[in-house]
Amino acid sequence: MSAALLLSFAVIFVAELGDKSQLMAMTFALRYRWWVVLGGITVATTVVHIMSVAIGHYLGAALPTHLLGILAGVAFIFFGLWTLRGDSLSDDEASRAQRATAPAFFVVTSAFMLAELGDKTMLATITLAADNDWVGVWIGSTLGMVVADALAIVVGAIAGKHLPERFIQIAAAVLFLIFGAYMLLENLIPGAAAPVIIAISVAVVGLLGGVLRMLPPRLRPAVLRTESNPAADDSALPSA
């Protein structure tokens, strides 16, 4: 159980970095007391993740382990690409966080439950529970999300909204992609040594990053685009 707990904690903690849940946590922390926000997040996460591990547990019992490993690798690559794409609050979620008038605890709890249903952290928890001890996954995933959002609450309550979003988003995406590539290679090449698989995974993710950087700016993920576009600036100049 301890291995599943630690793995789930690490995976969900990374998944929450730069996620819209952190944006919501920071917004709520600017309006309500920190312990009310943290309590609401904890309750919402506990409920959503017990549903997630139940789905993953029964799914895992019906699928062979080898197939689960491949599916998990594909899923985590998807999480990495999702994270690289970026996340932001919708107008409805921002409004719920900024202008709510109902009791604070109820507002925070309901908002986070709605935000997490179908989110990548819920999908990650389902994936982990399919091949690991469900109790460990439940506890670890819940702690991972609460700790990550607690960091956002601290930032929201003390330092405002100024996070190094670009660095956090890229780092989280890279970790997911490497983890996903490792799981895929581990199941596709069972006899390969772990250091070799790690090296190949890092190389593949590095190659992917190079390819993305070579794309025209309009085709890159927003986080990899340059701050300014000299060509656009030049085109705006009046011709002689």
Name the descriptors.
mainly alpha, single chain, disordered C terminus
In DSSP terms, counting alpha (H) and pi (I) runs of 4 or more, how many helices?
Answer: 11
The description of the largest β-sheet is: none
| Fraction of residues in β-strands | under 5%
Q: What gyration radius follows from the Cα positions, in whole Å? A: 20 Å
Tell me the overall shape.
globular
How many β strands by DSSP?
0
Q: State the helicity in percent bands.
A: over 70%
- List the helices and strands in order: HHHHHHHHHHH
Residue stretches low in confidence (pLDDT < 50, at least 5 long) are: 228-240
Average pLDDT score: 78
- Which class do the helix and strand fractions yield? mainly alpha
| Cα-to-Cα separation, first versus last residue | 72 Å
Overview of this structure, please?
With 240 residues, the chain is an all-alpha fold. Helices cover 77% and strands 0% of the residues. The protein is globular, with a radius of gyration of 20 Å. The protein starts with a helix and ends in a 5-residue tail after the last helix. The model is unreliable at 228-240 (pLDDT under 50).
